[in-house]
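Protein in question passed on here:
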Amino acid sequence: MAKETFERHRQPWKSEEAGQLRTLAAKGKGLREIAKALGRSEESTRDFAKKNKIEIVKKR
């Protein structure tokens, strides 16, 4: 199975991305959807959100 590649891999978060993360999280979007919209891995998105106290709803 090939690993998925991410456009922003290991690059610092920009303020626009942080704003978009906050907006999508506030709209109730799930982690997978937010990560895909930002071109980031789910792990990176989750870690950044946790570090910045942004709550992302858990979707099943």
In short: The chain has a mean pLDDT of 88. Residues 15-51 form one domain.
